[in-house]
Structures are given as C-alpha cells and as structure tokens.
Amino acid sequence: MPDLTSQRIPVTVLTGYLGAGKTTLLNRILSENHGKKYAVIVNEFGEIGIDNDLIIGADEEVFEMNNGCVCCTVRGDLVRIMEGLMKRKGKFDAIIVETTGLADPAPVAQTFFVDEDVQKNARLDAVVTVADAKWLSDRLKDAPEAKNQIAFADVIVLNKTDLVSKAELAEVEARIRGINPYATLHRTERCQVALSDVLERGAFDLDRILEIEPEFLDAGDGHDHAHDHHGHDHHHDHAGHGHGGLKHYHDEEMQSLSLRSDKPLDPTKFMPWLQNLVATEGQKILRSKGILAFTGDDDRYVFQGVHMMLEGDHQRKWKDGERRESRVVFIGRELPQQAIRDGFESCITT
Amino acid sequence: MKQFDTGEGASIASITERVRALPVSLPATSIHFLGDTAVFVGAEENAALIDEAGEVSTVAMHGGAILCAASDGRRVVTGGDDGRLVALDAAGAVRVLATDPKRRWIDNVALHPEGAVAWSAGKTAFVAGGRGEEKTFEAPTTVGGLAFAPKGLRVAVAHYNGVTLWFPNMAAKPEFLEWAGSHLAVTFSPDNKFVVTAMHEPAMHGWRLADARHMRMSGYPGRVRSMSWSAGGKGLATSGADSVIIWPFTSKDGPMGKEPAMLAPLQARVSMVACHPRQDILAAGYSDGTVLMVRLEDGAEILVRRNSGAPVSALAWNARGTLLAFGAEDGDAGIVAL
C-alpha cells in the first residue's frame, strides 16, 4: 500500500459549547498570515467576518448507517461537502469543520472512518474543543453536550482565563482532567494560542501514537510552563483532593480508564476481546487508544477508536531497550470499569 | 434481499487502435452529447466542447467546483459551488439560468425532455421553465438527488430516509416513499413503473410506484455512483462492484426475487456505466482506467481502452449510439466512432 497520509487533506474538528470562543479562533485561523489556505465548514454563515469562497455552510444532518450499529451515525452533509471540495483539490491545504455548540463530535469523527470516499481523500487530524474557563464548570453539570466535547477532545483550548481567578482556573482544569486527562490543554485569553498547537496535530494518525500518558503528569503541554506554575493550586479545598499540587475530580458520569501490562498480551485473546468490547459497550466508549506488545511479535501494535469503530496496525519494531509495555485507555460514559479491567487481565499471556 | 456472486470472464477483442485521444485537459466528471458534439464537464470551472471535426474548445462555466450536470440532448445544465445554474449549448453559448441569493451550492440538477429544469440547493428543490412559473419544494433534509419522471411533470426528490415524489404544477400532496438511510442519486425506470435510488451505503433501493413495494438491491463492495438504463429499460446497469451489475426490470415485479446479471469482471472496481441507447450493449469504465464494451446477451467483451492508471470518471454515448466518449480522473480522454 502506498503511503497516502501525506496526500490526504487534514481535517480539524472544532467544537465548543455556545459562547466559548470557537468563532474567535476560526477568525484567527483565517486571518493570520500563515501561508496556508483553509476550507471551513461552518454551521452558521455570517458569523465569520472574512470573505472567502471556501467557507461553506452546513446543516449538521446526522443519519444512522443501516448496519445495525445504533451509534454508527455519520454527517451526510459532510460527505456531500467533502465530495464537492475534493473537486477543488489543490486550492486549499486543510479543512476545518466547526460544529454547533450543542453538537456531539462523534458523528463528525465517524464520517471520516466509515465513508470510503471521504477516507480516501481526507484524514481526521484532531478534535479541538474550545472551553470557557468561566462557565465550563457549570456547563459540565447541566449540559451533557459540553461534557461530550471535553471527553472527545485531543486538544482543549481553555479560553477566557482572564475572567477567572487562579483558584477558579485550577478548579475548571481539575474538572476537565477528571473527564479527559489525555488531551493537550492550552490556557488562553481571546483564543491566543499558537495555531501550530491546534492544527496539524495528527491525533488520529496511528504512526503518531507515541505514548499514552495523562497530560497532567508532566504538567501541561511544554509550551506553557510559566502558566503551569501559576496554575497549580497549593490550597487543598474540600471539593477535591490534591495530587502533586493539582486538584483531582472524579466525574460521576464521564471517566477515563487506563490499563497497562508489563507482560505481553495474547493477540488471539486481545483482539476478539477488544472487538467484542466496542461492539457491546461502544455507545459508552467515546474514544479509545492503545499501544500493545503482543506475545512473539517484535512490532508495536497501535489502535484507536471512536465508539464502535476501531482501526489498528503494526506501527514499528520495538526498539532495543524499549520497555515492552502495553497501554490502553478508554474515555467514556459510565464505563463498566471492573469488567474492562478483568477482560484486559484475561488477555495477558501467562 | 438479493445478493450477487462472482461470475465468469469472457473472450476479448480490441478496438483500442480506433480510439481518438482528445486533448480536453480537464478531469471530466461527466460527458454529454449535443448531437455529435461531445461536452466534457470538468471538476471545476470549465467544460470542453469537441465538435464533429474533433476541434476542442474550452468554455468557462463556473467560478469554482462544478457539482452537478444534466443534459436533455439540446443543452447541458450545470450547478456549481458559486451558487449558479448555467446552461451550455452545442455552439458553446453559456447562459445563467439561476443564481442562488445566498450563494449556496447547487448540488443537483435534472432536465425534463420538454424543457423544464429542476435543481436543488440544500433542502430546497426548484423547478422552472417548461410551462408555469418557478416552484419550490422543501425536503425534510438536504436533497441527495433529483429526477424527472418520464411522463408528466413529476420530480423524484431523494433525501434522508426516502424519496418524495413532487408534482410542481399540482396542488396534490407530495407522495413519500420511505426507506431508512441516506438516498443520493435517483432514477425512474423508462416505463415509469419504478423509482430506484443509489444510497450512501453500498446498496440501492427501489420502489414499485403502483404499490410502493420495496426492492432492496445490495451486495456491492462500494457505493453505486453510476446507473444507466439499458435500451428499452430492460435492465439497470450499475457501478460499484468488480463487474457490471445489471438488475432485470422486464417483469412487473422488477428485480424482486431475481438475481442480477454480472458481466465483465476485472481486478478493478467498475466506476462508470453507460448503456447503448438502442442496442443491448453497454460501456463500462473501471477504477484502473479500463474501458470495455459488453454485450448484454452473452457478456462478450471488446476492449476500448487498456488499463492506464487513473479511474474512468465519465462515459457517454451519443443519441444514435455511433460515438462513445470517455474521460479519466487524470484528464485523459478519448472518443471512438462505431
């Protein structure tokens, strides 16, 4: 198979609850001088004050695939728009899909997995979620959509940090981490984030699954150390408990689950287990990702998934001296944690 | 539900040396004949006209992508992402038929033999020309395809979860044919008895108009992007598999309970089909660039173009069936006189 990755146009999905600042970020992407041309699929025309014939209005029409899989929903309008855009290949470098504030990112992401033609021409780059530092904590309590968008994100732009105190910022970050510890988080005012931190992330690129570590373990994203030091909350309060200076919340509904094993996994057990897990619990599992060491296999195997859809491949040889450790993470709603742990354990080669 | 399985190959003759290469220099998305003038519609901006003498002229049609095209044999009408609906005649004259005030994409177009034109932008379908003023119909979701019935002024509007049969000049309530899923291209059988859609998933769905009885036509490895009725409407030839799949429509039940014919299998996906207008012959284009002519009766094949890389993206006969033209995604094109 030829490597098509470079020819496939990267697609960034931009989500965020109403008023979080999606349009501000979009306007920056479109107006900054970065030498790239973006086709932008927006849900509301006119909010963007830039004249560009590659801004396309979409209707967010979701339909269920007739394959017996209830959560297998795709955006038919996106399929159509992608087809039209592909006729103008070469006129733009990347595509940004903005969703409405109330949208579930899953159908957008799934469109890039299930549609043959879309997949041939485009690849999902990352799900970027803009969150409002002042109001997100409240929205996580009353708006399931907001929680979905955080759980689904590869990159979170925590915006309007100038409107909150340090304590409030620490609180909202802890709430985000309680749901999704793996996304890269950027703290911004007026969405002032380096565009290279939100675009061309390769978050769905199997070749770029390097390690799976919760982001907060190394305290942020590496670009942002100054903020991190301010951001730490040294005053433990009663709402959470301290972990290396960061408050830690457990979201009742949405969690991540991380599994690891130093012993190799049996591929004849693991693959059927994983496939069965997403087939039966896929509605609850929003995202999954793994790096696997199989018995008698010198290659790293990587996989990732969105709900019931999985893709995986041998990535590269394990390096000499590299620790052959398997890591799997799931982010989802009311995950049957113990059952998943037990299932994973049963795949370890004894 | 009917499925097909792989068939047998057949002997092969060749007319590749009779094909005349055409310097159209655009990746054709469709070809239409206006008399013996071939019109190659490009993916964006332009169309190329090839007159009987083989002279190529390029005509500017749209300011961006050309999203759809249809022809009634007298003109080619295209819709673009510039929000315009444009007509082109054999002399190369271009006329703007409609402009969407919000510059929405014109996604679909269909022509009625008596001059009416139907098009859609988003959820709205329009009909104009012929007798009567412009009419609109709001589909429940974005329109996936449009087709005029062979008789009367009736339009099939394909959308999510079915097809609506709309009578633009009548007060009658539109008729809704339901089937879950996303319906794209739509076509009436020439005898006006059946409506068939190509769906977003690799399947087709049909309804018998008399009683809205369902016909599920599945088993395709890929989406059906090209459909063509054989001479007299005896069968519906389709792309989407590694052979041409032809569903029989000779009986009053259409393909219900019957197996489709599977002709001209290759180690490539059929990308385009075009049935000869008068004889039981069809032309098929493949994802590897091959073009074949196939006799429906026994599957005998004639090689028109060898495999050459880029998929065949357009294929058409003139009305008399004496010229066959093809275009590929890489801009390569040819015509053969028979």
Structure description:
The complex is a heterodimer of chains A (350) and B (338). By secondary structure, chain A is an alpha/beta fold. Helices cover 28% and strands 27% of the residues of chain A. Chain A contains ten helices and 16 strands. Chain A has helices spanning 22-31, 76-86, 105-114, 116-121, 136-142, 144-152, 166-179, 225-231, 267-281, 337-345, and strands spanning 9-16, 38-42, 55-57, 62-64, 73-75, 94-98, 122-132, 155-159, 184-187, 241-243, 246-248, 254-261, 285-293, 299-306, 309-317, 326-333. Chain A has a seven-stranded parallel sheet, sandwiched between helices. In chain A, strand 14 (299-306) and strand 15 form a beta hairpin. The radius of gyration of chain A is 20 Å and the shape is globular. Chain B is mainly β and 338 residues long. Chain B has a domain at 1-45 and 226-338: Methylamine Dehydrogenase, Chain H (7 Propeller), CATH 2.130.10.10. Chain B has no helices and 30 strands. Chain B has strands at 12-14, 20-21, 28-34, 37-42, 44-50, 56-71, 75-80, 84-89, 94-99, 108-111, 117-121, 124-128, 135-138, 145-148, 155-166, 175-188, 194-199, 203-208, 213-218, 227-229, 235-238, 244-248, 261-263, 270-275, 281-286, 291-295, 301-305, 312-317, 323-328, 333-337. A seven-stranded antiparallel sheet of chain B has the order 3-4-5-6-7-8-9, with no helix packed on it. The A-B interface holds A 45, 53, 56-57, 59, 61, 63-67, 74, 76-77, 79-81, 84-85, 87-88, 115-117 and B 29, 43-44, 63-67, 81-82, 102, 104-105, 107, 122-123, 141-142, 144, 160-161, 180-182, 199-201, 203, 222-223.
Which helices and strands appear, and what pairs or packs with what?
The complex is a heterodimer of chains A (350) and B (338).
Chain A: E1 9-16, H1 22-31, E2 38-42, E3 55-57, E4 62-64, E5 73-75, H2 76-86, E6 94-98, H3 105-114, H4 116-121, E7 122-132, H5 136-142, H6 144-152, E8 155-159, H7 166-179, E9 184-187, H8 225-231, E10 241-243, E11 246-248, E12 254-261, H9 267-281, E13 285-293, E14 299-306, E15 309-317, E16 326-333, H10 337-345
Parallel strand pairs in A: 1-6, 1-7, 2-3, 2-6, 7-8, 8-9
Antiparallel strand pairs in A: 4-5, 10-11, 12-16, 13-14, 13-16, 14-15
Chain B: E1 12-14, E2 20-21, E3 28-34, E4 37-42, E5 44-50, E6 56-71, E7 75-80, E8 84-89, E9 94-99, E10 108-111, E11 117-121, E12 124-128, E13 135-138, E14 145-148, E15 155-166, E16 175-188, E17 194-199, E18 203-208, E19 213-218, E20 227-229, E21 235-238, E22 244-248, E23 261-263, E24 270-275, E25 281-286, E26 291-295, E27 301-305, E28 312-317, E29 323-328, E30 333-337
Parallel strand pairs in B: 1-27
Antiparallel strand pairs in B: 2-30, 3-4, 4-5, 5-6, 6-7, 7-8, 8-9, 10-11, 11-12, 12-13, 14-15, 15-16, 16-17, 17-18, 18-19, 20-21, 21-22, 22-23, 24-25, 25-26, 26-27, 28-29, 29-30
